[in-house]
Amino acid sequence: MAHLLKGNIGTGIFSLPSAFLNAGLWVAFGMFPVIAIVSNPKITQVKSAAVMKRRDPSFSISYAGTAEMACRTGQPQYAKYARAFGITVNVFICLKHFGACVVYLVFTSTNLQAVIEYYTEIRWNVRIYMCILTIPLIFLNWIRNLKLLAPVSLVANVLQMSSIVVVFYYIFRDPLPPTNSVPAFGSWGGVPLFFGTAIFSLETITLVLPLQKDMRRPWDFKGWTGILNTGMTIVTCIYIAMGFFGYLQYGEEIEGSITLNLPQDEVLAQVVKILLVVAICGNYAVQFYVPIPIMWPTLSKYAARYTKNDFAAELAFRTFMVLVTLLLAAAIPKIDLVVSLVGAVTGTFLALILPPILEYVTCAPNISKAILTKDIVILVFGIVGFVTGTYSTILAIVQEFTG
């Protein structure tokens, strides 16, 4: 439960008040639980993995592996799509994690800029801070052993959770305005932006199977009151509280990250921003670690044609990917828009589009009408969310940077 809560409560929580601004206070309040329920087909992934394990006891559980095995061991007509299905899952997993790294770089740079500009006369563009932060991130992401990253992850999580508590303290320190002080509905164009941010905050589907696999009592993970549903209910309540009360407290003045609304003249608020910079850099390294084992084994075969030093080649590749995240962050240095774009593109595929397809391939032809109907509804919801969320976010980015 602790790992599930820790893994789900991430940087996206600080952008939720801005997301509530886009959709409106009560519209966002009503939509968020619906999105949380619909985008929580993780239990589908767990069930499919369990079926694959029964079919092949030597099966090594993973999201992409489950997708590929479902096609290979299911109906004969799906076998030819097995490799493509597995590759598709891995592509979106890599996009999701690298996208999160882009979000983290924008977040840390923006908060570092706010602190430095308050205490000094320096007025640098936020992209300069991105370049400065990229230097330690390059060396941090040269760490190839997950055990060495464990202390970094532990410190990052403690700092991040402490910062969330402090943000809630500032939200509730002063009396909250009446609920009619902010619009109940934002705009139709803002709803897809809200959707993208909500999906980004809630999407941690790649965390589920590794957690269940390492449990002493893996059967406790499932069920209406199992660890998964209980943990996601707690996470959803915390997210709604942050979005609802954060927007209500700061209203139309809410920033892309609520940390930028904290009082500039109070040391505690500035300390929180610095701690979050340190914490998110640690989380960057953990997010960055996930796609490398997926991508590098294939790429190393091509690198071997030009160099026999595999270690140096991998470090060069890691450096290159950190620089790619820098370029993307510098291209869109707006935290709320980056969060919405990453959520709309990768979150909808991993949490809404791929799981219903996986369940159908796993259970066909013995799939009930109720489950089939549920899968179709989630799939349509995901496709609509992907199209509208991506389009609205790109449109907002174009308007932001072209005036």
Q: What is the total tally of β strands?
A: 0
In DSSP terms (H or I, runs of 4 or more residues), the helix count works out at 16
Q: What is the arithmetic mean of pLDDT?
A: 88
CATH class: Mainly Alpha
Query: SSE order, as H and E?
Result: HHHHHHHHHHHHHHHH
CATH H-level superfamily: Amino acid/polyamine transporter I
- The chain-level structural class is mainly alpha
The radius of gyration over CA amounts to 21 Å
| End-to-end distance | 46 Å
In the CATH scheme, what's the topology name?
A: Amino acid/polyamine transporter I
| Low-pLDDT sequence parts | none
Number of domains: 1
Main sheet specs: none
Silhouette: globular
The second-level CATH architecture is Up-down Bundle
Describe this structure in words.
With 403 residues, the chain is mainly α. The chain has a single domain (2-402), classed as Amino acid/polyamine transporter I (Up-down Bundle), CATH 1.20.1740.10. The protein contains 16 helices and no strands. The protein has helices at residues 2-8, 16-23, 25-38, 42-55, 63-73, 82-119, 126-140, 146-173, 190-202, 205-213, 227-250, 267-289, 292-303, 310-331, 335-363, 369-402. The longest helix has 38 residues, at 82-119. The chain is globular and about 65 Å long. The N and C termini lie far apart (46 Å). The model has no long low-confidence stretch (mean pLDDT 88). Residues 2-394 form the Amino acid transporter transmembrane domain. It is found in: Membrane.
